[in-house]
Design brief:
With 324 residues, this protein is an alpha/beta fold. It is 44% helix and 17% strand.
Length: 324
């Protein structure tokens, strides 16, 4: 796994020749398959996604369990049948989006820009006109890497990155985020990369909806359930005198492209109150998810950290996988 010292100045992991060893050949096989898939017509990838969905449903029981827990907590008012349909749609979207990753790993900038359509760029332009720094509050949608990569073609961006256990796939994903004007830094690096980035005029890309543990977190609602939420965004906005602009990227099956949305900046933010700011942040993420909830990464362990006295979640129970 790459360590912070293995990252280059642009933030991409430095290539390690040890990754060419036979034990990494399956990962390079995935990379080769991704390259072939991005050469196929879109309708070909659509058809492959439909064929692969039943197998994915059988192989992802743990992820489906996590999603069921999250959906039951976030949408208790909805019937179980509604949540199961949403989960099935989510899995179908996850397969379809995954088949496009070769475009990010190997595609030209022009091809990526053709595949991603931007909405609400006037909010970025207004902040720039007013001389404000910017923070993109990005939701963990299935297509988030497409928005981040395309954003990095047009803007100088900076974002935290958590290295993956698979070094080859980690290299490919981090490289996709840093191929153009984007850069990443390890979460463990703290605030220094952010301060340097603000001074250098970079736009901070901030993903705030993971559960990263109790340190620095407050419990505030996320849909219908209290969630351990880092109270960092308000401090970052104050530090950079920055506007916080919510953003989400979604797959548009009807038109065969990715829609990246920028919403109006958070009002009266930061307020100076950590809990109030965390509530505002979660409400903004909810607003990004609600129009098309199946596009969100419900397989994340969103409620891993529990309030005192609350039972732990995500312990695997025997449940049938979603049908293809």
């Amino acid at each position: 796994m790459p360590t912070p010292s293995a990252r280059t100045a642009r933030g991409a992991p430095a290539f390690d020749r040890r990754w060419l060893a036979p034990r990494h050949w399956p990962s390079w096989g995935i990379a080769g398959l991704a390259w072939l898939l991005q050469c196929l017509p879109r309708r070909g990838r659509d058809a492959l996604a439909r064929l692969a969905l039943p197998l994915v449903c059988r192989l992802t029981t743990r992820q489906q369990h996590n999603a069921r827990v999250n959906l039951e907590l976030c949408f208790p008012q909805q019937p179980a049948e509604w949540r199961e349909r949403l989960l099935h749609d989510h899995l179908a979207l996850a397969v379809r989006v995954t088949l496009d990753y070769g475009l990010l790993w190997f595609g030209r900038a022009t091809a990526i820009e053709r595949a991603v359509r931007f909405h609400g760029e006037e909010h970025l332009a207004a902040a720039r006109t007013d001389g404000k720094r910017m923070i993109l509050l990005v939701a963990h949608a299935l297509a988030l890497d497409f928005g981040i990569c395309a954003f990095g073609i047009r803007h100088r961006a900076l974002g935290p990155y958590k290295a993956l256990a698979n070094p080859v796939i980690d290299w490919l994903i981090a490289r996709a985020r840093t191929r153009f004007e984007g850069s990443v830094f390890e979460r463990e690096a703290g605030m220094r990369p952010v301060i340097r980035g603000f001074r250098d005029g970079q736009i901070l890309v901030y993903l705030a909806d993971e559960d990263l543990g109790p340190d620095g977190a407050v419990f505030v609602p996320f849909f219908a359930e209290p969630k351990a939420t880092l109270a960092t965004l308000g401090r970052l906005a104050k530090l950079g005198d920055a506007r916080v602009i919510p953003s989400v990227t979604r797959w548009n099956a009807a038109e065969g492209l990715y829609d990246c949305f920028y919403l109006p900046p958070l009002a009266d933010f930061p307020s100076g109150d950590a809990e109030r700011d965390a509530r505002a942040m979660n409400a903004a993420v909810e607003a990004l998810i609600t129009p098309e909830p199946a596009q969100y990464m419900w397989t994340l362990r969103l409620f891993r950290t529990r309030p005192c006295g609350r039972a732990k979640l995500y312990k695997q129970r025997k449940t049938p996988p979603a049908s293809g």
